[in-house]
Design brief:
alpha/beta; 12 strands; 328 residues; binds guanosine-5'-diphosphate; 6-stranded parallel β-sheet; Rossmann fold; binds NADP nicotinamide-adenine-dinucleotide phosphate; single chain
Length: 328
């Protein structure tokens, strides 16, 4: 995997403290790995989990900012889940994420954080749209009904970023990743995203010598990004991206794949030989959300994404080796 250029530092002459909210999750752990591999002497990274404090509570959030005094913030913490968790808990997704984002961004302002990079998602884009979707289209119409709670809370980060910039001159920006997978994911059978959910189901089906059941028809299309690729791009955004407007962090449109193909990559990586069934009584969710990575490519034309077969093999190996402690 080629890394984006990383020689330029945010503030080359002074030590900076970068606080990562949600540092114990899928993306946070990948960023931890990437910055350990290419450590910059002037960067001090702090990775937080919910055990350090509840960021939906502004008093607890202030305590964390007071303790760590970050100059930069990577804001990942969120209530996160796959399609079926989003369908069940729309109000919780809306309220919890509104509360977390409001506390974190207000504290970034109060503590004079120089740059904050928050995380949106391609599932916040309008449901009825033209393709490919780009960064200018976030607010162009209602999101898909399955995840409107999560989507509206995340869209408001972009509004907050612009308001903090226009009223107070803050440098708060955001990235828009597609469906992410990798080590340290949430492998819960019902609440997780599709790749970790199917890895766990396949693991159980292999042990029981039973069929693997994939939810829905298998025909929806998704762009998947390996967590380590996303982590490299996140670090590049922190160090080099100067716009308030969001940037989509995604593989190309040509790399969109069907849920059926993803399921088959998982069965291949797990050497699973039994039958694969599709439960069409379960929702397919949005058929596709094809996103353009043209803006990313205008900055980083040569960035190489991990082949999904390789990424899925690594995620499967991680899950099997860490079965007892993995989130599930
Ligand atoms: P994750 O693995 O579920 O991690 C969530 C992180 O947020 C954990 O570190 C968790 O801490 C922390 N957290 C949750 N609620 C908190 C609270 N009230 N106070 C403090 N910390 C809290 O999620 P992820 O997949 O890494 O997601 C990272 C970001 O990417 C999120 O903003 C998400 O919306 C976005 N995103 C994810 C995907 C995807 O496919 N996964 C796709 C697009 C965008 P604990 O570990 O202590 O619980
Ligand atoms: P989305 O990309 O935001 O829709 O979220 P997911 O990562 O949950 O992917 C949902 C898509 O995968 C839908 O088309 C589901 O029908 C399909 N899918 C198939 N099996 C599973 C599974 O076990 N878990 C989840 N979450 N989705 C599945």
């Amino acid at each position: 995997m080629a890394s984006p250029p990383s020689s330029k530092k945010v503030c080359p002459d002074e030590t900076i403290t970068i606080m990562v909210t949600g540092g114990s999750g899928l993306v946070g752990q990948a960023i931890r790995t990437v910055v350990a591999e290419e450590a910059q002497p002037n960067e001090h990274w702090v990775f937080l989990s919910s055990k350090d404090g509840d960021l939906s509570d502004i008093t607890e959030t202030r305590k964390l900012f007071e303790k760590h005094r970050p100059t930069h913030v990577v804001h990942l913490a969120a209530m996160v889940g796959g399609l079926f968790k989003n369908i069940k808990y729309k109000l919780d997704f809306l309220r919890k994420n509104l509360q977390i984002n409001d506390s974190v961004l207000q504290c970034c302002y109060e503590y004079k954080v120089k740059k904050c990079v928050s995380c949106l998602s391609t599932c916040i884009f309008p449901d009825k749209t033209t393709y490919p979707i780009d960064e200018t289209m976030v607010h162009n119409g209602p999101p898909h009904s399955s995840n409107f709670g999560y989507a509206h809370a995340k869209r408001l980060i972009d509004i907050q970023n612009r308001a903090y910039h226009e009223q107070h001159g803050c440098m708060f920006t955001s990235v828009i990743p597609t469906n992410i997978y990798g080590p340290h994911d949430n492998f819960n059978l019902e609440d997780s995203h599709v790749i970790p959910g199917l890895i766990h189901k396949c693991y159980i089906a292999k042990q029981n010598e039973s069929p693997l059941t994939v939810y829905g028809s298998g025909s929806p299309l998704r762009q998947f990004i390996y967590s380590k690729d996303l982590a490299k791009l996140f670090v590049w955004v922190l160090r080099h991206y100067e716009e308030i407007d969001p940037i989509i962090l995604s593989v190309g449109e040509e790399d969109e794949i069907s849920i059926k193909d993803v399921a088959l990559m998982i069965t291949e990586a797990m050497e699973f030989k039994q039958e694969v069934k599709f439960d069409t009584s379960k929702s397919d969710g949005q058929h596709k959300k094809t996103a353009s990575n043209a803006k990313l490519r205008s900055y980083l034309p040569d960035f190489q994404f991990t082949d999904p077969k390789q990424g899925i093999r690594e995620a499967v190996e991680w899950f099997c080796s860490n079965y007892d402690t993995a989130r599930k």
